[in-house]
Amino acid sequence: MMKRILVLTLCLALLGGFAALAEDVTLSSDASDFVLLSEAVPDAILEIRYYSTYNFVGDRIDGYEEPLAFLTKEAAQALREVSDDVVSQGYRLKIYDAYRPQMAVTDFMNWALDMDDVRMKEYFYPELDKDVLFPQGYIAEHSGHSRGSTVDLTLFDMTTEKEVDMGGTFDYFGELSHPDYTGITEEQYANRMILREAMLAHGFKPLAEEWWHFTLADEPFPDTYFTFPVNSDSVVSDVVEAGALEAPSVDELAQDYFGTLANLEAGTAGASLKTAQAAANICAFAMDHGLWDPEMVNLHENIFAAFESLDADTQARALEGFNAVRSLLDDCLEDYEANRAVFEDAGAAETMDEVMYDPLNRLAWENLRDHTLTMGNDENVG
């Protein structure tokens, strides 16, 4: 009986909250002031938790249709300054969440009503009963994330190649997550302060209950909650807007793509390191030309024409180099950590981190690979 009363109380509270939302705030589907975080802050590592099932709900959240992160242009610019700051200290930013569509918040609210769904309790709220999450404010009818200038993040140590120990995990519901919580080690507390000080220095304000949560103090849309989903169709890339997404020219492909591949010499001393360096150069070429766009006009035709412009010996060496690079990069797509050492030894780990930790950059390589695989005589590159 008590459970029924509690659920009824929560339902009434939620209905009241939705009514307040409709009356007091503006909803908008206009994404024109938003940018893709992987372009605005290229050093950031993305781990979009609500696209995965490792979150306090245990399912992919409504509205997260691709593992991307968006922010308003103003917030993204400020975060780029934070990134430059922490990179100079030996860290990179790791992003858990940024813009959150209103439909995702509604998904959280619906989950909060289901008292029987406690699959993720031991990971995210072991000290609390689920029925207190809404009354105590852990779940609310709308979120600052939906205004587009709030980000959840941590630090990644480039020396240890691990997340920095913050003394608690992202989205843990409890006092442990308060930034000033003293029940952690001095080092863990100091790590929280490194992140906090960098964010505050560049215009963000913190949240008293979550060490990972920051909002741009001068946010451009303080009363507007956005509804567009998180997918690549919602936010137009700055590269696209600038009209720069034209296929690389035949000459560029002949010199910078096939030329790079043809310079590999399989079976020689240091061949694996040369392959790793070539792979990084090829990926950088794909990223710089926006090749993550699978609809890029004339890409296949230009690749084929560039290949045909080469003499027979260069063609043969380029195909051999392509197969070596493709094998290495496809292994990385399966398990990057197992293959990262070869890129470190080749001095190319930073470039490859940008590829493997960012889904759009991975798509850039995959698009170039797939177009190459379909050119001319397929058995030569199979």
Report the major sheet. 6 strands, mixed
Q: Give the helix level as a range of percent.
A: 40-55%
Q: Provide mean pLDDT, rounded.
A: 86
- Report the CATH C-level class of the largest domain: Alpha Beta
- Specify Rg, calculated over alpha carbons: 24 Å
Task: Determine the CATH topology of the largest domain.
Answer: Muramoyl-pentapeptide Carboxypeptidase, domain 2
Estimate the global geometry from the Cα principal axes: elongated
Task: Identify the CATH architecture of the largest domain.
Answer: 2-Layer Sandwich
Number of helices: 14
Number of extended strands: 10
Note poorly predicted spans.
1-22, 239-244, 376-382
Structural class call reads alpha+beta
State which percent range the strand residues make up.
Answer: 5-15%
Q: State the distance separating the first and last CA atoms.
A: 66 Å
Can you characterise this structure?
Helices cover 46% and strands 11% of the residues. Strands 3, 5, 6, 7, 8 and 9 form a six-stranded mixed β-sheet that branches. The longest helix is centred in the first third of the chain and has 23 residues, at 2-24. It has helices at 2-24, 37-40, 73-87, 102-113, 121-124, 186-201, 238-241, 250-262, 271-288, 299-308, 312-334, 336-345, 349-356, 359-373, and strands at residues 26-28, 34-36, 45-46, 70-72, 91-97, 150-157, 162-163, 204-207, 210-216, 224-226. The model is unreliable at 1-22, 239-244 and 376-382 (pLDDT under 50). The protein has 382 residues and is an alpha+beta fold. α9 (271-288) packs across α14 (359-373). The termini are far apart. The protein folds into two domains: 2-226, Muramoyl-pentapeptide Carboxypeptidase, domain 2; 238-380, no CATH class.
